[in-house]
Task: inverse folding
């Protein structure tokens, strides 16, 4: 933790075995270390809803239902979109949590790689 | 009216046949604009040096090779830019003294034109090396950093339906 963006690039070039790439999915079993396994993420908005709302592809993530609510609210309350501050806040919080989850996944992947390297070393010695 | 004025103009054939005369009149040409004949004897040389206001020892006419300079002196070519700006010139804007003879190419070496006697602070090869050094130096930095690009420590965004299961960090039950 506490890495700067530049350190990440440096580590990915010089220590690729313990540094996950930002463009590759995680390689370990997601349930390692969880006795009962982890809760799955749930997609609430349906494909039909998103198609109907003409959501761009990059917005069809796990926060899409908040975005749909926010847009509907804006449409209903126009010209007073400030009335939708609650919906906007909820949506942006969801996006923040999503980013946080990606950061956690990265750190989990990195620590698991470090652990694997340590185990390999002890086995070798 | 226009046709009357047109008829008053000199005929074109006359203008064509007397081009030298017309140019001379239009440019206010007079005999003093033209140098004298090339000086052959010492007496002629002394007279020419006196005419141009320079010492006989310093007087050197252009070679008589058909250039048409006649007895005009071959003066050192010094640009106005290279002359002392603090000297009390009679004509500071031209850096010229009263009655000082002008070089034949004087109109090319004024302050607003070319400086033939320019001394560079750095030699030209050094300046070229500076330019190329900056270009390729920055390219080298770019090429080195291209291998290790910085990035935020996050994994790719998770989308439903991309063929893999996504999990929160909460345990089941």
Result:
């Amino acid at each position: 933790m506490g890495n700067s963006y530049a350190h990440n690039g440096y580590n990915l070039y010089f220590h690729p075995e313990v540094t996950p790439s930002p463009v590759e999915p995680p390689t370990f079993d997601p349930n390692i270390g969880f006795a009962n396994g982890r809760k799955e993420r749930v997609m609430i908005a349906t494909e039909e809803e998103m198609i109907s709302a003409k959501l761009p592809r990059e917005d069809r993530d796990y926060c899409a239902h908040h975005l749909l609510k926010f847009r509907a609210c804006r449409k209903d309350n126009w010209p007073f979109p400030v009335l939708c501050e609650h919906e906007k806040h909820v949506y942006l919080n969801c996006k923040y949590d999503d980013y946080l989850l990606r950061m956690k996944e990265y750190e989990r992947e990195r620590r698991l790689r470090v652990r694997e390297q340590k185990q390999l070393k002890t086995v070798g010695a | 009216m226009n046709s009357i004025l047109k008829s008053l103009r000199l005929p074109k054939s006359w203008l064509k046949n007397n081009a030298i005369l017309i140019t001379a009149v239009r440019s206010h040409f007079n005999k003093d604009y033209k140098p004298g004949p090339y000086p052959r004897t010492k007496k002629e040389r002394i007279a020419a040096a006196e005419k141009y206001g320079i010492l006989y020892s310093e007087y050197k006419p252009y070679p008589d090779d058909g250039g048409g300079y006649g007895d005009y002196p071959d003066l050192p070519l010094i640009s106005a830019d290279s002359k002392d700006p603090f000297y009390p010139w009679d004509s500071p804007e031209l850096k010229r003294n009263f009655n000082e003879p002008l070089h034949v190419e004087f109109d090319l070496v004024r302050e607003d034109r070319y400086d033939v006697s320019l001394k560079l602070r750095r030699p030209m090869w050094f300046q070229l090396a500076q330019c190329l050094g900056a270009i390729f130096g920055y390219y080298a930095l770019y090429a080195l950093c291209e291998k290790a690009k910085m990035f935020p420590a996050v994994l790719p965004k998770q989308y439903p339906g991309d063929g893999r299961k996504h999990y929160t960090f909460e345990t089941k039950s």
Q: What stands out?
A: The mean pLDDT of chain A is 92.
